[in-house]
Amino acid sequence: MKTQMNIQQAVEEARKIVVKIGSNTLAKADGTINTEFLDSFAEQCSSLIKRGKQIVIVSSGAQVAGVSTIDRWARKKDVHFRQALCAIGQVELMSQWRKAFASQDLHIGQLLFTREDFENDHRSLNIRNTLFTLVDEGVVPVINENDSVSFEEDSIGDNDNLSAMTAILWSADLLVLFSDIDGVFTKNPKEDPSAELVETVESIDKLKSEISIGSTNSFGTGGIQTKLEAAERVVKYGIPMVLANGGKENALAGLADGSRRGTLFLAD
Question: Which whole-number Å values give the CA distances from 76 to 64, 150, 157, 185, 236, in the listed order?
Answer without folding.
Answer: 13, 18, 19, 34, 40
